[in-house]
Fold this protein.
Amino acid sequence: MSTDIDAPGDDTVETAPPARRRLPVLGLVVVLLAAAALVLFFTRQATPGDTSPEAGFARDMGVHHAQAVEMSFVLRDKTSDQALRSLAYDIITTQSTQRGIFMGWLQQWGLDQSSGRPAMAWMSGHGHGGAATTAPAPGTMPGTMPGMATEEEMNRLRQATGRDAEVLFLQLMIRHHQGGVEMAEGLLRLSDRDEVRALAQHIVDGQNAEIRTMKELLAKRGAQPLPAP
């Protein structure tokens, strides 16, 4: 009596389970997506260059803040009005701290804290700067930062006393803040770097709030703001 026993595998064609066949393909897709994400991350977060909007903003806003701090020190020593002294103190502390952040960024990025490029060149073609598409405000030379007081205006503030000093300070600082907001909004249009955008937005919000306060203080003194830059 004979028994037919099929040898194992004689007529069987082994096929890999569908899931097993898909694993190499899925793995390749995951690797490609991860690589693309890394490229995107490092492209977006690459260290800003010397002519970048971020570097120009840090340098110019640092100079802009320095003048605001100087103006606030001048006013603080001239007035006994507590609201104005408190405002001056806030500007001194806030903008000195922010200026330190700007200089820290430049150091971290391996860049000089000053540049031979004209002021606002980083916004050139975007509403300001040497090749700007809009005309500068009255009394403002092309390539200067918006809202900055002239040396003649600074001297007037240093020499003013009493109510005249308070009014002039508020007028100059309102215009100065308006220029700072313009610069920060320009950075927000040009940069996708998270930490720079966050501080620029903080400047927009904080200085707009201070502008409202200063306009109220100016109105109480029967005076009007200067034309916006």
About this structure: The helical segments are 18-44, 53-76, 82-108, 151-159, 162-190, 194-220. Confidence is low (pLDDT under 50) at residues 1-8, 37-44, 127-142.
